[in-house]
Amino acid sequence: MEKFEIDIKWGSYFFIVNMTISIIIMLLMYLINSYSLVYLSDFLIPLFIVQLIYFTIKAVRENNKYDLNKGFRKIFVFVRLLVFYFMLISFSDGRTNIWCFSLLLPYRKKDISELVENDSNRDDEITLKEFMVRLKRKFSRT
Predict the structure, then answer these.
(1) This prediction's pTM
(2) What is the pLDDT of residues 79-95, one digit of tens each?
(3) Which residue of 89, 91, 118, 128 shows the fewest CB atoms closer than 10 Å?
(4) Following DSSP, what letter does each residue of 40-97 receive, concatenated?
């Protein structure tokens, strides 16, 4: 296995485990008391850090098993896992505002329905004479 395959594997595990445990904790807190969701970040942030360290150690061990890590490259495993996790998070929300991923993700300022509505409004205002002129232009080009 290559080091990037290992990092993507453990980054995927990290994403899946973190999302499921976060949802479970949120549901439990909501069932206990809906006002306790105010303290949700107090639980999720340390949990995220512990999970990140755990999965980084697992990825480093597997990279060492295949002799892919040497020296300071172990730090890059941590960075790759973190970047992969945030990329998955940004892909799950299409309206991301994270500046470092804004170059990677296409972002539409308007929905397609808004664009279609604007075009349909413009076509409603056209007269029969303008329509005939447009048809003649279209067929004269081909």
Answers:
(1) 0.59
(2) 888 888 887 877 665 55
(3) 128
(4) HHHHHHHHHHHHHHHHHHHHHHHHHHTT---TTHHHHHHHHHHHHHHHHHHHH-SS--
For position 101, what pLDDT does the model report? 46
Q: CA 137 to CA 135: how far, in whole Å?
A: 5
What pLDDT, on a 0 to 100 scale, did the predictor assign at position 21? 93
Amino acid at 70: K
Model pLDDT, residue 50:
93
CB atoms under 10 Å from CB of 60, counted, come to: 21
Q: Please say whether the beta carbons of 59 and 77 come within 8 A.
A: yes
- For CA atoms 75, 77, 80, 85, the dihedral sign is negative
